[in-house]
Amino acid sequence: MSQVLRAYGTSIVLLLVWIGGALAQTPTESDRARKAALQLARGHEIPAATLPCTPDEAKWWEDLRAAGKAVQETRGGKKEREKFLQLLQQGQERSYQPPIADTKVIVLSKTPPRYSEQARRRMIKGTVALAVELRPDGFVGEVEIVQGLDPGLDENAAEAARRTIFLPPVKDRKFVSFRMPMTMSFNLF
Question: Which pTM was predicted?
Fold first, then answer.
């Protein structure tokens, strides 16, 4: 009888260890959410160089990454924005190639639109839809109002879109233009 209980007890212990191990390896909803949050955060960072490049290109790219991080930390501070755009321009002048695989645009900073007092008094709220041209030189080109809300708010939304700071998309080791959909919301609190 005691041998049966021992065998039975050992089986239960092994089963509990196996179940505990299986549960520990199964990602929880919280684990998945944390992983997704990290991927989103990293999606807004300029990636490290992964392709062969000259020492000058490598230095330029690291400086560009640092300037991009400074833009994010200061939420588009004037000095940081100018440094970032200067480095993009320097890369173009020297025919540097981004040492990374093809990537989508990386938005570093977006400015919220200004709410006009007239629109606030009239209690206008809603969303302006825009199509924004992001140029390879790091500047915003044409801004098209796709769905407007109010002429004054539409212009404020377009002005805010023009202040977007981004790393242009990379295709075949070159920065390329991109038309990006963007929305600007106006809410009363």
Answer: 0.76
